Write the structure tokens for this entry.
Amino acid sequence: MVEIVGVGFMKAGKTYYFDPRGEKYELGDMVIVETARGMELGHILIANKEIDESELVAELKPIERKATEEDLDKYHKNLEKREDALKVCAEKIEKHELDMKLVDVEFMIDGAKIVFYFSADGRVDFRELAKDLAGHFHTRIELRQIGVRDEARMLGGIGICGRPLCCSKWLNDFHPVSIKMAKQQNLSLNPSKISGSCGRLMCCLNFEDKTYKELRKGMPKDNERVETPGGLAKVVKVDYFNGRINTRAIERDPETGEEVFAQEIKSYTKDEIKRKSRNAKNEKVNGSQLDDEADETDDIPENIDADEARELEALMKED
């Protein structure tokens, strides 16, 4: 077992483990730690505790010290310099005619380095820009390209739910999100409805995916044929939260002998029905082919127009 503390940084992000070196830390304590970027101000998110060494992914770095009043004063002064630094960098980006979008800037607590964050569609040769910035600020300069999700996290904003973006408030890490998750939740595949401020699939699709997977177990899909106490029927809608399956009975037209659907909708539980063999998925009812497994893939449906298909493809891109 090894003793650790969890440290977070000013921007929402992952929690990193550090070695407390025998010191006791409380939640919210401000500390100075060394990271790959330099000396940074962080705050304790996990107080002293012991974990198994197998949980460590890298060698623990020690916490340098608790933050002093002088450290906090430096941090606030750096925040005051942020706007001027962004302005200078934006002017120099324009001067060098670089195709990049400046997102944010961060000063290391000891003043040894300034990190500028930017987004771009491809690789950017910023070597001359870095030299120009170093000459202006007289310190080490790092230009770091970030993806659109990290850009949204840094800038913040309000989601379509009316609440602050999860990534900028509490989400520690980005998890894969797929079109399949939207399908399983019976959401419209309109790109404007399922994309976040970053232009990618909304992270919250992932939050409820496990619940929907549990609710869907043993449940038929829309348009599937099932055996009910009243005979053969077609599923018209599945209410996963109430565990009800709405169906319309399949009857024979007395004149033509063709299969038709009854007007009355009857509701059953999954225990009251018997699902037909999956081999029946290619059968046709009134000219409509049943596709039993259409929503089990991440493929883009064929029943949307070309513009929406292109937008959905863009949403599914990984940063």
Summary: The CA atoms of residues 29 and 44 lie 5 Å apart. The longest strand covers residues 38-51.
